[in-house]
């Protein structure tokens, strides 16, 4: 045993103790601790840690940061005032606490240090042998992963399903000390083989049996059956029987009472929330509070339901009356996750950021991977909304390190509003790998949820699937409309607003502005949700603009102009929306022939994008300015804007560069830009336009306007991505 501070570390079992209490650590965090204690007072470089503990993985840096944070929290350590792990900027880390070894012979002492060293190093000769044998042993001692599947209800009465939710909740609570529990949301991954290495799996099924019920359970090859006389609050005792039959765990947690009056109503609410939505679930949570007024989980769900249905004062009242002092870390994490999401929806980003950090801290203390990943995803969403790109990248990388491509499947899809909500990288540089992985995950999720009663999960999966740009248009449209149908009857008004808003954007991409307006005009939302209101106003202006651009009708263009100017004069409009609005106004001005005004607006938008750190999204303003230079017969100025390395994937940049090269009779540059454009997918139409332009004996602004695609012709990239 290694002693440091108030802690004791068993380097053979990779177990950390404080007094008589074992502190739960993820296997990788325990290995990291062993790595540090094997090198007291030595500089440990980040590169060395990554090499020894994270041999592979796209997000090794984020995984190391996450593990360092968890280890510090387990030790009660601080990066600013360290007692154990000191950060040396630009160098690495140092273990600074004295280490003692329990009474053993000197030879044994050396062996213990060698064990700690061996589990994390791959060395030569004798040390290498220690590494192999001891690492395997350490891994066998780590908590096995377990996923508890939803109970299969074969009773023929869907109302009985609540009991399965209750039973699963008790099982999760009692097994978390012996297993690394994975969330049900990952069930599709393992059923459809998206993830190769499946964890242990806990199956439950309930069948009628002569006015009683037969509960069948299976875990890792073990099977058992229990006769259930009636479906009431007996799920706690039933869980204990299952654990005793199927595992070597006692499943007992003394400080966590499980019997609460009205708990059956709470789990009926959980079932209703999952299968039907908040409208039905609300009455069950209210009933639970009648029996147990201090039941925090029920009140927390009511707080969430209230704001999702647009009742903001009611939501605030629920949040303010919740007392967290006696709650578990997991429940505390959920509280701050719900609160932060609510604050983000209100546009209160500083409050949301603070609550998100509290959610992350509590989630890390709970050691529940899904909660930690959810907190990182929420922090990433907030960073996105406030254009904090470094924070966004770090948070999403950390989420990816924990739950893989599922972290992108639902989050990345939400950020595809481009000009209404521009990406950190422009549409030409969208991460195709992430989209491909997300598409696979979402396809599996849709198939799985179609076979269950979990309609809300199905709607979320359909919504995200419909936003993935690798999904064919015919499929994505059906997916979005099906999601809208489900959510419209769920009572989740905020979710309905999200789907309606995206459908508006979706039809704008297809240049079907009238259909876009038909969905955008259905949006009914509380004015307090300022980010959603702002986005809705931008999209309505874009829809009118689309109608005007595709029909050459000036009236819709003028309506778009009025709406965009109204956004600029509203002092509450965010800086990013102001930049987008100015670029949209520039495009309207170009269509109306007001080139001077278009250039002024474009330059302003360009500066705003630069100031916000949207270096890749600047491409919108760059190719607009190039087009203006071409209209003015200033091709040399247009060529000064092109960076062939940075803009190698930007269709219009290469297209306008090719036109400018021809106008300056620079044949070498023309061939280079044509070749690069031809290497991009969906560039054939642009190459045909270029060929026609080259054949013209005279070049004028009128010819450029009539023959070449203008910047606004692809303002949602529909020509290249959706079709």
Automatic annotation (TrEMBL):
Organism for this UniProt entry: Pseudoalteromonas luteoviolacea NCIMB 1942
UniProt superkingdom: Bacteria
Molecular function, one GO term: DNA binding
An individual GO BP term: regulation of DNA-templated transcription
Boundaries of every OmpR/PhoB-type domain copy: 1-97
Keywords for this protein: DNA-binding
DNA-binding region: 1-97
Protein name: OmpR/PhoB-type domain-containing protein
Alphabetized Pfam families for the sequence: Trans_reg_C
């Amino acid at each position: 045993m290694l002693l440091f501070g108030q802690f004791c570390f068993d380097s053979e079992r990779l177990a950390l103790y404080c007094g008589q209490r074992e502190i739960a650590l993820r296997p990788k965090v325990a290995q990291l601790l062993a790595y540090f204690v094997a090198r007291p007072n030595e500089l440990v470089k980040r590169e060395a840690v990554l090499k020894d503990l994270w041999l592979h993985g796209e997000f090794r840096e984020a995984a190391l940061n996450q593990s360092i944070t968890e280890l510090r929290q387990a030790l009660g350590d601080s990066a600013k005032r360290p007692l154990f792990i000191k950060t040396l900027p630009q160098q690495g880390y140092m273990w600074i606490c004295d280490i003692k070894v329990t009474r053993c012979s000197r030879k044994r002492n050396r062996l213990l240090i060698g064990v700690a060293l061996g589990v994390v190093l791959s060395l030569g000769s004798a040390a290498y042998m220690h590494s192999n044998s001891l690492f395997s042993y350490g891994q066998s001692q780590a908590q096995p992963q377990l996923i508890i599947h939803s109970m299969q209800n074969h009773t023929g009465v869907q109302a009985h399903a609540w009991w399965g939710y209750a039973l699963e909740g008790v099982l999760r609570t009692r097994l978390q000390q012996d297993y690394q529990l994975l969330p049900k949301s990952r069930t599709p991954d393992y059923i459809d083989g998206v993830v190769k290495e499946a964890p242990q799996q806990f199956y439950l099924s309930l069948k009628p049996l002569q006015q009683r019920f037969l509960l069948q359970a299976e875990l890792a090859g073990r099977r058992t059956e229990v006769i259930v006389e009636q479906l009431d609050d007996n799920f706690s005792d039933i869980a204990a029987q299952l654990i005793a039959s199927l595992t070597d765990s006692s499943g007992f947690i003394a400080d966590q009472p499980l019997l609460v009056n009205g708990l059956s109503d709470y789990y009926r609410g959980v079932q209703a929330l999952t299968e039907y939505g908040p409208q039905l679930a609300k009455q069950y949570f209210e009933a639970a509070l009648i029996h147990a007024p201090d039941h925090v989980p029920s009140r927390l769900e009511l707080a969430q339901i209230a704001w999702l249905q647009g009742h903001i004062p009611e939501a605030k009242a629920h949040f303010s009356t919740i007392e967290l002092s006696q709650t578990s870390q997991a429940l505390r994490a959920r509280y701050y996750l719900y609160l932060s999401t609510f604050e983000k929806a209100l546009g209160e980003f500083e409050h949301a950021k603070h609550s998100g950090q509290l959610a992350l801290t509590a989630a890390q203390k709970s050691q529940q991977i899904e909660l930690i990943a959810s907190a990182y995803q929420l922090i990433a969403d907030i960073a996105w909304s406030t254009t904090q790109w470094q924070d966004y990248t770090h948070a999403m990388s950390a989420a990816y390190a924990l739950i893989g491509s599922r972290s992108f499947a639902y989050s990345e899809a939400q950020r595809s509003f481009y000009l209404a909500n521009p990406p950190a990288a422009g549409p030409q540089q969208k991460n195709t790998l992430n989209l491909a992985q997300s598409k696979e995950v979402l396809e599996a999720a849709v198939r799985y949820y179609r076979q269950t009663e979990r309609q809300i999960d199905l709607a979320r999966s359909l919504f995200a699937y419909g936003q993935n740009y690798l999904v064919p248009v015919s499929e994505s449209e059906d997916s979005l409309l099906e999601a809208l149908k489900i959510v419209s009857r769920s009572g989740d008004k905020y979710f309905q607003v999200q789907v309606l808003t995206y459908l508006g954007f979706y039809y704008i991409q297809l240049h079907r502005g009238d259909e876009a307006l038909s969905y955008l005009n259905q949006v009914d939302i509380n004015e307090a949700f300022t980010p959603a209101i702002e986005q809705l106003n931008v999209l309505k202006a874009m829809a009118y603009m689309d109608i005007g651009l595709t029909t050459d009708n000036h009236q819709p263009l003028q309506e778009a102009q009025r709406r965009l100017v109204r956004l600029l004069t509203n002092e509450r409009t965010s800086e990013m929306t102001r930049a987008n609005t100015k670029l949209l106004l520039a495009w309207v001005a170009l269509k109306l022939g007001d080139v001077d005004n278009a250039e002024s607006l474009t330059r302003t938008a360009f500066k705003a994008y630069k100031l916000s750190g949207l270096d890749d999204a600047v491409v919108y303003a760059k190719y607009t300015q190039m087009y203006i230079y071409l209209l003015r017969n200033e091709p040399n100025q247009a060529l000064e804007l092109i960076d062939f390395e940075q803009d190698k994937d930007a269709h219009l940049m290469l297209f306008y560069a090719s036109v400018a090269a021809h106008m300056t009779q620079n044949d070498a540059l023309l061939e280079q830009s044509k070749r690069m454009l031809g290497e991009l997918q969906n560039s054939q139409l642009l190459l045909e336009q270029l060929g026609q332009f080259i054949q013209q004996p005279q070049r004028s602004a009128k010819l450029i306007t009539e023959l070449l695609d203008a910047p606004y012709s692809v303002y949602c990239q529909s020509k290249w991505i959706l079709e």
